[in-house]
Amino acid sequence: MNLKLKDIVPQLITVIAVVLIFGFFTYNAQINMENRGIDFGYGFLSQESSFDVQFSLIEYDGSHSYFRAYLVGLLNTILVSVIGIIIATILGVIVGVARLSPNYLINKFAAFYVEFFRNIPLLLQIFFWYFAALRALPLPQDAEAIFGVFFLTIKGLYVPAFIWQNFSIFFYSLVAAVIAIIVIRIHAKKVQENQGKQIPVFFISLGLIFILPLLSFLIGGVKLSFEVPVLKQLATTSFIYEGGVSLPPELIALTLSLSLYTATFIAECVRAGIQGVGKGQKEAAASIGLTPNQVLKLVIMPQALRIIIPPTTNQYLNLTKNSSLAAAIAYPDLVLVFAGTALMQTGKAIEIVSITMFTYLTLSISISILMNWYNKKIAIQEK
Amino acid sequence: MSKINFLKPDRANLNTFLYLGSFLFLISFLDVFFNSFFNLNLTGFLPNFMSFVLPLILGFIGLYFIRIEYSGIKRLDLLNKHINTNNFNAVLSLLIIFIIIKSIPPILSWFVVDASFAGDSKDVCTGTGACWTYIKVWMRRFMYGMYPNAEQWRINLSFIALVLLGSVGYFATDKFKKYLTLYYVVIYPFIAFLFIFFFISGGPVFFDFSYGIIAAILSIIIGFFIPGRFKFYYFLIVPLALYIILKYFLFFEEYIELGKLDGLNWVETGAWGGLSLTFIISFFCLIFCFPIGMAFALGRRSGFPLIRYISVGFIEFWRGVPLITVLFMSAVMFPMFLPEDFFIDKLVRAIIAISLFEAAYVAEVIRGGLQALPRGQYEAAKSLGMGYWKMHIFVILPQALKLVIPGIANTFLALVKDTPLIFVVGLLEIVGMLNLAKTNPEWLGFAMEGYVFAAIIFWIICYAMSKYSYNLEQKYKTDR
Q1: A177, B6, B17, B76: which sits with the fewest CB atoms below 10 Å from its CB?
Q2: Hey, which residues 54-93 in chain B have their CB within 8 Å of chain A?
């Protein structure tokens, strides 16, 4: 009996404290909202938003609902995060490997990059790129074409637009190629485990991923043409590019700073991962006669990835969360569109902030659940 | 004389290859050097593309020639080993050398040679270089924000005093060494509080604070008579309760005049800013987030399921949301949750928000340290008859914290780097002040200088912190 009481009392006190705090907050919130004549509810989501967003992936203007505005913000956040993650991964892996290079200069150069970008606040970097570096770009009429089709101006980057015919066939051919590659990989693994034969999976996959979409062009009637942006004069001093896709400077500044910043952390993860594989592993693999490529592919990478992937996923999550700094340079992401403009218009502080936080929370918790599952799957089974 | 095969440098013709290779490399080096420092194009007679690529090709051939294994010349072997192991590395080395040479003159000219330092108006900034005059003129604003000029000695004095008090640990004799932890954990933050609220703020805030002091002293005195096993819960609840009772039920404001000094003007927190605000916020968040994080780390590993779930919920919640939304919450949502006449200063709200946010990260780091300890440590402590608190305070935490020094240092670094985000609640620390100065109509167009200046300051702070944490790690490293 005594023992049980000892178990229950601390828990009870903690729970009561938590409940009291939450109760206190809810009670106050109710009173405050009554006093100010605000009613609680999520009904406003279907109302007409009547504000405009500068840059959106889906069709949107003031006549759409607040929910649509939320979607616009969310998609913009996802866009910036995905581009940032791709660039940061490529850069991070290169720098991480460079930090292990025996070449003194490369090594120091990579170290300099990491130490430099890691120790400056991200917000400062975003401001630097947006307000200082990108403002030094030429006006649209003075911009020189890069490779004849890209135009980098103070108003953003203009790239040619893809115009597809029968895009769905191309897409299906791509999907088919991916499925075929997966099947071949599984088959190759089986063959290797049973007979010890190695199938050149990499070259077969490379061939498949090029040939199938190519076939869709030749046989399936897929056509691709480009729409190159063209300079157009609006007034005597005001020029604009028409056609093509325009990427606003906010997006460029944000992806640039996010990926440069996050790449430093990914580089450190990669370095730690490769260093974490014991020297003995490499030597043992070499002594049983594997070629250097095989050592890397079959022995080092599988073990290094086990160390690299969890912290790298964390960095991806950080990047996604950091993309909310977009609000500082008015890139219309979730925080700016929804927790900024929509909140100002409706005054529904509790609802909007809670939806915004819940969105981010769902994103990170689902990824961390996935990560835990992955960790369990690849963990070394010790006897 | 043996035959010379130019495709395969060997030791037999060492001198030939060495001189030829060095000569070619020197030429390529000089070409780039003159090009970049004196704006002379030595190979200008060639077509554009050729003159651009030529140094690279020459340098590459040169490096190829001097790549002789076991040449017997110590320096050459060292060079080959470090920057010239194979063709790929040679090209990369050349590229890096050329990039460095190319980038020195423009950077140097922008920073120093063409920059303007003198004067105190925009008119002196006519050159192509940086306008450091801008920084000079705005220096006070960048350092102290909107804090009145006449009162800035208060900030300086407080910071100097706090740094001096903070360095006591280095001068303490062995006799007092054992009290150092107590000093740094309890007394020093308390003194810092006094300085910041009393000196930098100066005014009615201290009134409110004096209730806190009385509540703390009273609860400590009563605490001596509380039996040991309830002490933790006692200190969890009673001081706060006492404070609330004192403040809201016993109105003896007129009796507490000890907080009032007539000499100092009250400076509202909205006027604080600049680098000093960065320090203040980092300092307080650092003090708060550590104990909170430790509590939740222990809670997450606690044997009581309810406490564990609450801790997990807390940690995962704060780790899952971006700081900017947390600050949004503290700015627009938090006031709704408080009684109507209850007002919390926005600086305090920001500090609470950042502390809770970083506490979750600290908790995860400390949990990592707790998990890394071998189970034998727990069992040994238990077998000596230690209770939960004794075991953690004397055996587990000292070892676990030692293990996680790098992780905690990283979290604190992240904290310092996150402080600029307080622009969301309308507080302007150094980056915020830069953005304000940038839009001043008299000083348009100097954004670059401002950001470079702030970047240098932040870089020095963060780099120093990371090096210091590395030293700590080495100092407290114990082999197992």
Answers
A1: B6
A2: 81-83, 85, 89, 92-93
